């Protein structure tokens, strides 16, 4: 039996997918007064990019732009500098420019997984769900990516929101295999199992979720639904009351 599923009230994918690395401070040294005079352009590009990211973290957008423009003057095809400029435009609510620079970063380096993950988050924020899922699917092929477990979880959530439950299952299960304490993926898998009529498995996953995270209205409502589907009216009533009191 397959139940009609509802879009989950999960936390924003953009928050889950935000894996941007930023410096903790702004003390970045650049060897020359003129960026063009640097004997090592690659090193200067990296230094200006790090400086721009540090200013971006501190919400000093003017100085962030100055530093990143210097980086791109030196290295117009540097993928990290291009991605950083995309993040700046995203912060400034300039979606067309942000998309352009994300695309340029990935044109410069198609294997730049962090940029692809951040691009997916941007696309999700813009309501471009299909495009976001496509970017995540491609990023998930990088088995060496340090944050692959979170990336897989994001892909599963994205596919679930698309309504493609079969495509959502595998990345969610992979995410849990990599990180058994991923409570949100457990919750989403419990909902997926319940939607597809696998209520015993859904119940087991949900009980594991409750050992890892605090109950919230979404999980309590799901617990009541699964308990009722299992014929446990007492548990269904208990979780329903907990939901009403939350």
UniProtKB/TrEMBL annotation:
Residue windows of the TPR repeats:
45-78, 79-112, 149-182
**Which SUPFAM superfamilies does the UniProt record give?**
TPR-like
* Entry-linked Pfam families: TPR_12, TPR_16
- Its signal peptide is 1-27
Record keywords, A-Z: Repeat, Signal, TPR repeat
**InterPro entries for the chain:** CellSynth/LPSAsmb/PSIAsmb, Pilus_4_PilW, TPR-like_helical_dom_sf, TPR_rpt
Protein's recorded name: Type IV pilus biogenesis/stability protein PilW
Q: Which organism is it from?
A: Chromohalobacter moromii
Q: Taxonomic lineage of this organism?
A: Bacteria, Pseudomonadati, Pseudomonadota, Gammaproteobacteria, Oceanospirillales
> What gene name is given for the protein in this entry?
pilW
